[in-house]
Amino acid sequence: MSVINLEDPSGYGRVIISNEKVQEIIEQKDCTESQLKTKSVNAGIYCVNSELLNRYIPLLSNNNAQAEYYLTDIIKMAVNENKTVTPIYVEEEEFKGVNSKLDLAEAEIIMQNRIKKALMEQGITMRFPDSIYIDCRATFEGESILENGVTILGASKLINAHIKTNSVIEDSIIENSDVGPMGRIRPLSHLKDTHVGNFVEVKKSTLIGVKAGHLAYLGDATIEEGSNIGAGVITCNYDGKNKYKTTIGKNVFVGSDSQLVAPVNIEDDVMIGAGTTLTKDVKKGSLALTRSPLKLIPNFFHKFFGK
């Protein structure tokens, strides 16, 4: 049977060993004070002759602290018949039990270290790897860079990508592009040859050769190469019942603080003036602008404050 030696054996059944032979396994709640000090614990893997199992299992009793039937009691049954039970010592990392939230967190660290070690050996650069989380389903190609605090979730695929500090990528493809710092790419997005800056959120969208430098929300959108998305731009893709698509062509300039009310189609070579609320399709080469005329009232400050 498999045995682990632990500095802190809390939560595990203790394995009593004498002269390198297992004598019995005692579950923690049934241990005496002296038995609780035992550092050798049950790793949960056994090799048992099936004939013995057929004989021992019907003899199991629930006369214990938890009123449960313990399969581990077959060890003492075998020893009482002068059979030898040999301990095979294994590493905690390979056989660690998860019996608490702390155990779960420690197991996750073990898995994360394996994932990140393999990726760095593959050529992925990581800044402060301990601060980075990478889903086991994620894949990487080329020489991507992950800065500190990055989270890669789901079956994301990164190809020569640079993901900057505290950015999150979820089930998306990032190809020859950079995201962040503090960018969020939500599921079913595809970025290629694109710059997505700080506080930009992209959801279920395809951006090819696009610049969206900061403070934007791009949901259910397709944006083609050469287009620039200004600060504060949002695609208004949800009317409370349904989601709608925004299509932006090539070489489109969308000015800051614009709202694109989907469904809407913006053709190539279009300019959207800052502050525009766009509710109609825009033809190629056009300027779209919705803005109240500016009013200037001389000496208003002094009249208002009586100065």
From TrEMBL:
PROSITE patterns: HEXAPEP_TRANSFERASES
Main location: cytoplasm
InterPro entries for this protein: GlmU-like, Hexapep, Hexapep_transf_CS, Nucleotide-diphossugar_trans, Trimer_LpxA-like_sf
Catalytic activity: N-acetyl-alpha-D-glucosamine 1-phosphate + UTP + H(+) = UDP-N-acetyl-alpha-D-glucosamine + diphosphate; alpha-D-glucosamine 1-phosphate + acetyl-CoA = N-acetyl-alpha-D-glucosamine 1-phosphate + CoA + H(+)
Localization in the cell: Cytoplasm
UniProt keyword Acyltransferase, yes or no: yes
GO molecular function: glucosamine-1-phosphate N-acetyltransferase activity; metal ion binding; UDP-N-acetylglucosamine diphosphorylase activity
One of the record's GO cellular component terms: cytoplasm
Keywords: Acyltransferase, Cell shape, Cell wall biogenesis/degradation, Cytoplasm, Magnesium, Metal-binding, Multifunctional enzyme, Nucleotidyltransferase, Peptidoglycan synthesis, Transferase
E.C. code: 2.3.1.157, 2.7.7.23
Cofactor(s) listed in the protein's UniProt record: Mg(2+)
Keyword Cytoplasm assigned: yes
A Pfam family the protein falls into: Hexapep
A GO BP entry: regulation of cell shape
SUPFAM superfamilies: Nucleotide-diphospho-sugar transferases, Trimeric LpxA-like enzymes
Family named by the database record: In the N-terminal section; belongs to the N-acetylglucosamine-1-phosphate uridyltransferase family. In the C-terminal section; belongs to the transferase hexapeptide repeat family.
Name of the protein in its database record: N-acetylglucosamine-1-phosphate uridyltransferase / Glucosamine-1-phosphate N-acetyltransferase
Organism for this UniProt entry: hydrothermal vent metagenome
